[in-house]
Amino acid sequence: TLNAQDEIGTAANNPGLELNGNSLVAHTTGAGGNIIIDGLNAGLLTLTDVDAVTGDISITSAGAMTATAVDTTTSGGITLNAAGALTATHVVALDGSVDLDAQGTLTATDVQANDSAATGAYNVTVDTTTGGMVLTAVAADNNITGTATAGDITIGAMTAGAAVSLTATAGSIDEIGVGDVGADITAGGLITLNAQDEIGTAANNPGLE
Question: Which of 28, 100, 127, 134 is deepest in the core (most CB within 10 A)?
Fold first, then answer.
Protein backbone atom coordinates (compact mmCIF):
# COMPACT_ATOMS: atom_id res chain seq x y z
CA THR A 1 0.00 0.00 0.00
CA LEU A 2 1.39 3.37 -1.09
CA ASN A 3 -0.04 6.66 0.23
CA ALA A 4 1.23 10.12 -0.70
CA GLN A 5 0.08 13.72 -0.86
CA ASP A 6 2.14 14.30 -3.99
CA GLU A 7 3.38 11.90 -6.66
CA ILE A 8 3.95 8.19 -6.49
CA GLY A 9 6.52 7.75 -9.22
CA THR A 10 7.14 10.49 -11.75
CA ALA A 11 7.18 10.77 -15.52
CA ALA A 12 10.61 12.42 -15.31
CA ASN A 13 12.00 9.13 -13.98
CA ASN A 14 10.63 7.22 -16.95
CA PRO A 15 9.14 4.62 -16.68
CA GLY A 16 8.24 5.69 -13.13
CA LEU A 17 8.45 3.74 -9.88
CA GLU A 18 9.42 0.11 -10.55
CA LEU A 19 7.62 -2.48 -8.45
CA ASN A 20 8.40 -6.19 -8.36
CA GLY A 21 5.22 -7.48 -6.73
CA ASN A 22 1.83 -8.92 -7.56
CA SER A 23 -0.65 -6.53 -5.93
CA LEU A 24 -0.99 -2.79 -5.40
CA VAL A 25 -3.13 -0.36 -3.43
CA ALA A 26 -2.22 3.30 -3.93
CA HIS A 27 -3.63 6.73 -3.08
CA THR A 28 -2.53 10.32 -3.70
CA THR A 29 -4.38 13.28 -2.21
CA GLY A 30 -2.67 16.44 -3.45
CA ALA A 31 -2.66 18.54 -6.60
CA GLY A 32 -0.43 16.94 -9.21
CA GLY A 33 -0.59 13.63 -7.37
CA ASN A 34 0.28 11.40 -10.29
CA ILE A 35 0.63 7.65 -9.85
CA ILE A 36 3.18 6.27 -12.33
CA ILE A 37 4.11 2.61 -11.84
CA ASP A 38 6.10 0.12 -13.89
CA GLY A 39 5.31 -3.44 -12.80
CA LEU A 40 8.31 -5.72 -13.34
CA ASN A 41 6.69 -9.01 -12.27
CA ALA A 42 5.77 -11.13 -15.30
CA GLY A 43 2.96 -12.73 -13.30
CA LEU A 44 -0.50 -11.27 -12.65
CA LEU A 45 -0.52 -7.73 -11.27
CA THR A 46 -3.66 -6.99 -9.24
CA LEU A 47 -4.69 -3.37 -8.68
CA THR A 48 -7.31 -2.82 -5.99
CA ASP A 49 -8.38 0.66 -4.90
CA VAL A 50 -5.96 2.91 -6.75
CA ASP A 51 -6.98 6.55 -6.83
CA ALA A 52 -5.62 10.03 -7.41
CA VAL A 53 -7.58 13.10 -6.36
CA THR A 54 -5.84 15.36 -8.87
CA GLY A 55 -3.34 13.71 -11.18
CA ASP A 56 -2.86 11.06 -13.82
CA ILE A 57 -2.62 7.32 -13.21
CA SER A 58 -0.30 5.36 -15.51
CA ILE A 59 0.46 1.72 -14.70
CA THR A 60 2.30 -0.79 -16.87
CA SER A 61 2.67 -4.49 -16.11
CA ALA A 62 5.13 -7.04 -17.50
CA GLY A 63 2.34 -9.64 -17.50
CA ALA A 64 -1.43 -9.81 -17.10
CA MET A 65 -3.28 -7.21 -15.07
CA THR A 66 -6.53 -7.12 -13.10
CA ALA A 67 -7.67 -3.62 -12.13
CA THR A 68 -10.61 -2.97 -9.81
CA ALA A 69 -11.65 0.48 -8.52
CA VAL A 70 -9.11 2.70 -10.26
CA ASP A 71 -10.25 6.33 -10.16
CA THR A 72 -9.27 9.95 -10.62
CA THR A 73 -11.74 11.81 -8.45
CA THR A 74 -11.19 15.49 -9.35
CA SER A 75 -9.18 15.48 -12.57
CA GLY A 76 -6.75 13.21 -14.37
CA GLY A 77 -6.47 10.51 -16.99
CA ILE A 78 -5.92 6.78 -16.55
CA THR A 79 -3.60 4.58 -18.65
CA LEU A 80 -3.33 0.83 -18.00
CA ASN A 81 -0.95 -1.19 -20.16
CA ALA A 82 -0.66 -4.97 -19.74
CA ALA A 83 1.78 -7.32 -21.46
CA GLY A 84 -0.91 -10.00 -21.16
CA ALA A 85 -4.66 -10.09 -20.55
CA LEU A 86 -6.26 -7.05 -18.93
CA THR A 87 -9.44 -7.13 -16.85
CA ALA A 88 -10.63 -3.63 -15.87
CA THR A 89 -13.64 -3.21 -13.58
CA HIS A 90 -14.77 0.25 -12.45
CA VAL A 91 -12.01 2.30 -14.01
CA VAL A 92 -13.32 5.86 -13.93
CA ALA A 93 -11.58 9.11 -14.87
CA LEU A 94 -13.10 12.50 -14.11
CA ASP A 95 -11.88 15.23 -16.44
CA GLY A 96 -9.49 12.81 -18.09
CA SER A 97 -9.34 10.10 -20.72
CA VAL A 98 -9.00 6.35 -20.20
CA ASP A 99 -6.57 4.28 -22.26
CA LEU A 100 -6.53 0.48 -21.88
CA ASP A 101 -3.94 -1.54 -23.80
CA ALA A 102 -3.51 -5.32 -23.60
CA GLN A 103 -1.57 -8.10 -25.28
CA GLY A 104 -4.24 -10.64 -24.40
CA THR A 105 -8.00 -10.65 -23.87
CA LEU A 106 -9.24 -7.24 -22.75
CA THR A 107 -12.34 -7.23 -20.55
CA ALA A 108 -13.69 -3.78 -19.66
CA THR A 109 -16.66 -3.38 -17.32
CA ASP A 110 -17.82 0.01 -16.01
CA VAL A 111 -15.08 2.02 -17.67
CA GLN A 112 -15.80 5.74 -17.90
CA ALA A 113 -14.17 8.97 -19.06
CA ASN A 114 -16.36 11.67 -17.55
CA ASP A 115 -16.39 15.45 -17.88
CA SER A 116 -17.44 17.68 -14.99
CA ALA A 117 -18.08 20.65 -17.29
CA ALA A 118 -19.49 18.93 -20.39
CA THR A 119 -16.72 20.22 -22.64
CA GLY A 120 -16.67 17.03 -24.71
CA ALA A 121 -12.95 16.41 -24.45
CA TYR A 122 -12.39 12.99 -22.85
CA ASN A 123 -12.11 9.67 -24.63
CA VAL A 124 -11.97 5.94 -23.92
CA THR A 125 -9.46 3.99 -26.01
CA VAL A 126 -9.27 0.19 -25.84
CA ASP A 127 -6.76 -1.89 -27.80
CA THR A 128 -5.56 -5.48 -27.74
CA THR A 129 -3.17 -7.42 -29.93
CA THR A 130 -4.69 -10.87 -29.30
CA GLY A 131 -7.65 -12.54 -27.64
CA GLY A 132 -10.28 -9.97 -28.55
CA MET A 133 -12.24 -7.82 -26.12
CA VAL A 134 -15.47 -7.75 -24.13
CA LEU A 135 -16.88 -4.27 -23.47
CA THR A 136 -19.69 -3.74 -20.97
CA ALA A 137 -20.90 -0.38 -19.61
CA VAL A 138 -18.17 1.61 -21.34
CA ALA A 139 -18.87 5.34 -21.54
CA ALA A 140 -17.01 8.42 -22.75
CA ASP A 141 -17.81 12.09 -22.70
CA ASN A 142 -16.32 12.29 -26.20
CA ASN A 143 -15.14 9.34 -28.36
CA ILE A 144 -14.79 5.60 -27.83
CA THR A 145 -12.16 3.95 -30.04
CA GLY A 146 -11.12 0.31 -30.02
CA THR A 147 -9.03 -2.13 -32.06
CA ALA A 148 -8.75 -5.89 -31.62
CA THR A 149 -5.91 -7.00 -33.87
CA ALA A 150 -6.78 -10.67 -33.35
CA GLY A 151 -10.07 -11.88 -31.90
CA ASP A 152 -13.66 -10.70 -31.65
CA ILE A 153 -15.16 -7.59 -30.09
CA THR A 154 -18.17 -8.39 -27.92
CA ILE A 155 -20.33 -5.53 -26.67
CA GLY A 156 -22.59 -5.36 -23.64
CA ALA A 157 -23.32 -1.65 -23.86
CA MET A 158 -21.36 1.49 -24.67
CA THR A 159 -22.25 5.17 -24.76
CA ALA A 160 -20.25 7.98 -26.35
CA GLY A 161 -21.04 11.67 -26.40
CA ALA A 162 -19.51 11.86 -29.87
CA ALA A 163 -18.22 9.04 -32.08
CA VAL A 164 -17.66 5.29 -31.70
CA SER A 165 -15.08 3.54 -33.87
CA LEU A 166 -14.36 -0.20 -33.48
CA THR A 167 -12.16 -2.45 -35.58
CA ALA A 168 -11.92 -6.24 -35.34
CA THR A 169 -9.01 -6.77 -37.72
CA ALA A 170 -9.29 -10.57 -37.80
CA GLY A 171 -12.63 -11.20 -36.10
CA SER A 172 -16.23 -10.11 -35.65
CA ILE A 173 -18.20 -7.48 -33.73
CA ASP A 174 -21.29 -8.67 -31.90
CA GLU A 175 -23.40 -8.21 -28.77
CA ILE A 176 -23.13 -10.30 -25.60
CA GLY A 177 -26.80 -11.23 -25.17
CA VAL A 178 -28.99 -13.47 -27.28
CA GLY A 179 -32.28 -11.78 -28.08
CA ASP A 180 -31.29 -8.59 -26.29
CA VAL A 181 -33.20 -5.69 -27.86
CA GLY A 182 -31.53 -2.92 -25.81
CA ALA A 183 -29.06 -0.55 -27.43
CA ASP A 184 -25.56 -2.00 -27.63
CA ILE A 185 -24.00 1.21 -28.96
CA THR A 186 -25.29 4.72 -28.29
CA ALA A 187 -23.41 7.67 -29.79
CA GLY A 188 -23.93 11.36 -30.33
CA GLY A 189 -21.96 11.18 -33.57
CA LEU A 190 -20.76 8.75 -36.20
CA ILE A 191 -20.59 5.01 -35.43
CA THR A 192 -17.90 3.24 -37.48
CA LEU A 193 -17.58 -0.56 -37.34
CA ASN A 194 -14.95 -2.52 -39.27
CA ALA A 195 -14.55 -6.31 -39.08
CA GLN A 196 -13.07 -9.16 -41.07
CA ASP A 197 -16.03 -11.37 -40.17
CA GLU A 198 -19.56 -10.61 -39.00
CA ILE A 199 -20.97 -7.41 -37.57
CA GLY A 200 -23.93 -8.68 -35.62
CA THR A 201 -25.27 -12.17 -36.17
CA ALA A 202 -28.65 -13.71 -36.86
CA ALA A 203 -28.10 -16.08 -33.93
CA ASN A 204 -28.31 -13.08 -31.59
CA ASN A 205 -31.63 -12.04 -33.08
CA PRO A 206 -32.20 -9.19 -33.81
CA GLY A 207 -28.45 -8.71 -34.08
CA LEU A 208 -26.31 -5.79 -32.95
CA GLU A 209 -28.46 -2.88 -31.82
Answer: 100
